[in-house]
Amino acid sequence: MSHLIEEYAKSLGVKIGTPVLNDHFYPILDEKYITIHTDNKIDSKNYEYFPQVINLIKPILNNLGYKIYQIGGPADPVLKNVDKLLLNLSYRQSAYVIKNSKLHLGIDSLPVHMASMYDIPIVALYSHIMANNAYPYWSSKEKIILLESDKKGNKPSYSYEENPKTIRTIKPETIADSIFSLLGIEIKLNFKTLNIGSNYHIELTEVVPNFVAELSDQKDKNIYIRADLHFDDQKIAYWCANYKSTIISNKMLPLNLVRQFSANINTIFFKLTDEDIPAEYFYQLKNTKVKFIICTKDKKNLPQIRNKYFDFTVEYDDIEDRASNCNKINAKFLTNKVLLSEGKVYPSEAHLKINKSIDSDNDVIYDDNDFWKDSEHYYLYE
Q1: 366: buried, middle or exposed (CB in 10 Å: 19+, 13-18, 0-12)?
Q2: Cα–Cα dist 299/52, whole Å
Q3: Residue 134's closest CA among 13, 42, 33?
Q4: In sequence order, what are the residues at sequence separation of 6 or more whose Cβ sits closer than 8 angstroms to the Cβ of residue 96?
Q5: Residue 67 CB neighbour total at 10 angstroms
């Protein structure tokens, strides 16, 4: 199949011309900048690793006088480390910003074709369709780099949702190198992606209930209360009272506490240990209308455990199996999952165990199961 615009032209019996867009002035102070666009309206096109791309390119670009502008709509995911957010502009204002940029980076969407109309250098990402069907049609060939996802030899899905998402196979350093190439910057990054966990893109905060604090950036988010690491019902109550919460516990929670804060408790995960939790407790807990799941690491006796708690959801907790079977490579790591304990921030349980907070050796791997059981949250690199 040829480019979509050629198919439309044949179907309508018209010629393909050069688009005309009357852009509208928008005040810009920077002489050199690139634009970046992402959105999550179509999940299969949503590239969650743009923050890592920005971390790779920003120091170099800023040092050379370039700024990074994010353009798009007010509902687009905000990229935190850009130099300027322009998410409330009209199409005509966005066109003006793109026209005066040095390069556009983005998913296959309208801004790519705006940049093509002005023959601005473009790095474009393609996933669920073929790049040949929707490439920047009006661009000079030497001014575009099209990065397609690795489809493992398969045809494109043409689906708005993919599992797994193929766009995640495009590596951040490949995007960064493409940007430098089109800008004529002769720099080769000393960075290599080794593995990106399936949940790396998810920001997740766990709190050990051994302290209280105000987390202003978590007010509209769900925190995970790790009552399995430290049990203090008063501090558990504090976190449940002030934040939307998911509780992980290996002990019975006071029923009054659950009832009182049921509106803020999403789910309770009970990790079974040698300390028995009677089935009667769960019958009473069910009356609170709070969702709960019973978890066990005892695979051998799973049928008997499910029979004991017949009226409730019992799941096998395979986290230790995943930890022992994962590819334990020698690398550094990044994570968007953090663990808060006594007012300090840790990048993993393993770091908490040896008291290495995120202010110290937060990118160093500690080779034990407490580290690797969260491997799906890690970005491993060298």
Answers
A1: middle
A2: 38
A3: 42
A4: 23, 24, 25, 26
A5: 20
Helix (H/G/I), strand (E/B), else coil: 146: strand
Whole-angstrom CA distances from 47 to 53, 126, 135, 168, 301 are 10, 10, 18, 7, 42
Question: pLDDT > 90: what percent of the chain?
Answer: 72
For residue range 112-161, list pLDDT tens digits in order. 999 999 999 999 999 999 988 998 999 999 999 999 999 888 888 999 99
pLDDT digits 0-9 by tens, 165-180: 999 999 999 999 999 9
Contact 61, 68 (CB under 8 A): yes
Q: Cα separation of 161 and 165, whole Å?
A: 8
Strand order in the sheet with 193-196: 193-196, 378-381, 332-335
Please state, in angstroms and rounded to a whole number, the distance separating the CA atoms of residues 382 and 361: 15
Chain-wide mean pLDDT for the chain?
A: 92
Within a 10 A sphere around the Cβ of 148, how many other Cβ atoms?
18
Taking a C-beta distance cutoff of 8 angstroms, is the pair 71, 37 a contact? yes
- Residue 20 CB neighbours (<10 A): 6
Helix (H, G, I), strand (E, B) or coil at 285: helix
CB atoms within 10 A of CB 259: 14
User: Can you name the residues that pair with 14 across neighbouring β-strands?
Assistant: none
pTM over 0.85: yes
Q: For 315-357, how does the pLDDT look when each residue is reduced to its tens digit (9 = 90+)?
A: 998 877 776 666 767 788 889 999 999 999 999 898 888 888 8
At 143 the pLDDT is 97
Length of the chain: 382
The percentage of residues in the chain with a pLDDT greater than 70, rounded to a whole number, is 97
pLDDT of amino acid 360: 57
Coil vs helix vs strand at 27: coil
The CA distance from 6 to 129, in Å, is 16
Torsion of CA 182, 185, 190, 193, to 10 degrees: -20
